[in-house]
Specification:
There is one protein chain. By secondary structure, the protein is an alpha+beta fold. Helices cover 19% and strands 23% of the residues.
Length: 672
């Protein structure tokens, strides 16, 4: 968590040994000068155990112990406000844990504090006993809430207000990614592995083809049976089969809006998250034109400070959709919205008017209902699946789908959340049309029978096939049943469809590897913890299901993991690279590969968000691609609401291969 100790203190000691008369008469424990004690690491996102398990680390970048009595570490908004006490050793650390000494497992806190850090940013000031500001940081320049990766200081000698002096941790500890009371994983002395860091770090130089950011729409069709595949990042078209160049550098928002605008009768829209104004406006316009628009949106925990702001923004947009073009609830142009857990209106008048909503919310009735195990009072504007009258399920599970069904014909699906971060990265990029968001993939298919299967899934969550939902008949998550057709023939192409929870989608993936993979498997995955799936691939790679056993079979494996999860003990990346995990469990016993596979942490600008596997690509052995919203985990398979397509088609698989090859080379992989 610091640079290697400078040789400078040793030189000073040698000087004073030769010339003792120059020694000042001071204690070995002294107050440090400005900048000697710094804010070194911040777990503003909490840990994998709890979002409230926040912690802050100070570092003493001097050769003397520093007494912190009378010092303060305060946020300018008033919380937290920490009166420090104790001593921080020379070139040592001082760990502050929120609430109790359980925020960091196995490491004793130097001080306990109270007060939560904000999710979006805080302005922290470290002041000495005289009130002088010693160090400060005015924003969260790094860190990742999903991965629970801390914000680390790169160089203690560089100002905390310098945004380039912070990076996202990439080393694992018991509760996430970070280095409590240890050398920072992103330190500038070279001991950190900065190439594995998350989306806030600078990726390595990309291949020349990625310098071309021009949108390339090479294979798009409106015909029945069309399968249009789009990538928002670059691809390597030199790997295209004849006449099959991929669609890459594509603005997904434009593609989605075009598809929604084609609707004449109905739109069913399932979204994990949405905050794209143009998409919201398009849905409102289609409803005003008389198109039946039904929306299922995932509810979030509004009490979680790390999701509060984005969930608040989403609720403002959802209310705007519910009010329709005339901004009045209860009229014909309203969009009908439903969820897995009820949503309550945002009542802040300034935030409401900013989004074009009425300043007041008195036209939505205030109610008190049971959500999960607690009573909640608010203005309920999105109904949800009921446990019983006046009682709803909590928002703990995820309705993680991102699909649209248009006119009972087109299915639009993939890995992309309908958000600014998911496509552009920032609001500023959105205004300029710069696609610096998460890496994603989408597929749209024109086939009424496939649309009917997705509609069956939608209606199961909706509780009816009518315009209005039925909260009593509705079923989400583990309450759903396996009630859809799973195999279709689309103009001679075999397509399989599996939904979670209930269809054992990830288990079907393992079956495909075990029974159908003959030559190769390539994958890019956000989060992979499913052991059975990893074990089937291990057996193909080296002919053994056992730990540290096997001989290479000639089967080809290449893969990419989102860097935020590369070092997580449960990640398949640990097994595949033959590493010993920091801990194990019954479901993740750390079955290491005897011959480490050429798999890498991604090097994308932000997240590698795909959940995609290619099997026997560019062979004559049924080339197949697996794509959808499902992460390969217990939650993705057995808890969340998800959808997955398994497309058996050489051309579609080859288009995915063009994009995979670009991601793989960018991450440091070598193509044969």
């Amino acid at each position: 968590m610091k640079k290697l100790i400078s040789v400078f203190p040793a030189i000073i000691l040698f000087f004073f040994t030769l010339y003792p008369s120059f020694l000042p008469a001071v204690s070995k424990v002294e107050a440090a000068g400005t900048g000697n004690v710094v804010i070194n690491e911040i777990a503003w996102m909490g840990t994998n155990n709890s979002y409230s398990d926040e912690w802050i680390e100070l570092y003493n970048n001097s050769g003397s112990d520093v007494v912190l009595d009378g010092w303060q570490l305060n946020a300018t908004d008033g919380a937290p406000a920490i009166k420090l006490s104790g001593t921080i050793p020379a070139y040592g650390y001082f760990l502050l844990e929120k609430t109790d000494d359980q925020s960091v497992t196995g490491i004793q806190a130097d001080q306990i504090y109270s007060g939560s850090l904000g999710n979006t940013a805080e302005y922290l000031k470290l002041m000495n006993a005289a009130g002088a500001v010693i160090d400060e940081v005015d924003s969260w320049y790094a860190g990742d809430n999903t991965a629970k990766a801390t914000m680390e200081r790169i160089d203690p000698a560089v100002a905390g207000l310098d945004s380039t002096n912070w990076a996202t941790a990439n080393a694992s500890y018991a509760d996430g990614l970070g280095t409590p009371k240890a050398l920072n994983s992103t330190a500038t002395d070279g001991s950190g592995s900065g190439g594995d860091a998350g989306g806030n770090t600078t990726p390595p130089e990309t291949p020349s083809v990625c310098d071309d950011r021009t949108q390339r729409l090479n294979n798009v069709s409106e015909a029945e049976g069309a399968m249009n595949v789009y990538f928002n990042k670059c691809a390597f078209p030199q790997y295209a089969s004849a006449g099959n160049e991929a669609n890459y550098n594509v603005n997904f928002e434009d593609i989605l809006i075009k598809r929604l605008n084609s609707a004449t009768t109905s739109i069913d829209f399932a979204t994990y998250e949405i905050n794209l104004p143009r998409v919201v406006d398009t849905l409102i316009q289609k409803a005003a034109q008389g198109v039946d628009v039904r929306v299922i949106a995932d509810s979030k925990d509004a009490a979680d400070p790390h999701y509060a702001e984005r969930f608040e923004t989403m609720r403002l947009y959802l209310e705007k959709m519910k009010r329709g073009q005339d901004a009045v609830i209860g009229t014909e142009d309203d969009i009908v919205i439903f969820s897995d857990s009820p949503m309550f209106a945002v009542e802040d008048s300034a935030k409401r008017t900013e989004k074009g909503l009425p300043a007041g919310v008195t036209d939505i009735e205030q109610v008190t209902v049971t959500v999960g195990n607690s009573d909640t009072t608010g203005r309920l504007f999105v109904e949800a699946e009921e446990k019983s009258a006046g009682s709803y399920y909590g928002p703990g599970n995820q309705m993680h789908n991102k699909f649209a069904i248009v006119d009972d014909r087109w299915v639009f699906t993939g890995t992309w959340n309908f958000t600014v971060t998911g496509l552009y990265g920032t609001d500023e990029n959105m205004q300029q049309g710069i696609l610096d968001g998460n890496q994603n993939q989408i597929v749209e298919i024109n086939w009424p029978q496939l649309a009917g299967i997705y509609e069956t899934e939608f209606n199961e969550m909706w509780g009816s096939n009518a315009l209005n939902p039925d909260p009593v008949a509705s079923n989400f998550s583990t309450r759903k049943t396996d009630n859809t057709t799973h195999v279709l023939d689309i103009n001679g192409k075999k397509v399989e469809i599996y939904f979670s929870a209930g269809d054992n989608a990830v288990g079907k993936m393992a079956d495909v590897i075990r029974n159908e993979a003959d030559f190769n498997t390539y994958f890019s995955i956000f989060a992979w913890s499913d052991q059975a799936l990893a074990d089937e691939l291990k057996n193909k790679w080296e002919g053994s299901y056992n730990d540290m056993e096997g001989t290479l079979t000639g089967f080809d494996v290449k893969g990419l993991f989102d860097s935020d999860f590369w070092n997580q003990w449960w990640s398949a990346s640990v097994d595949m690279t033959g590493r010993t995990a920091s801990q194990t469990s019954v479901n993740n016993p750390n079955t290491r590969w005897n011959n480490p596979a050429p798999v890498y942490a991604d090097a994308e600008i932000r997240k590698l968000h795909s959940k995609t596997m290619l099997i026997d690509a560019d062979t004559n052995s049924d080339p197949t691609v697996i794509v959808g919203s499902t992460n390969w985990s217990n939650n993705g398979n057995n808890v969340n609401d998800e959808n997955m397509l398994i497309i058996h088609d050489a051309a579609v698989t080859n288009q995915f291969l063009q994009e995979f090859n670009a991601r793989y080379v960018q991450a440091g992989g070598v193509l044969q």
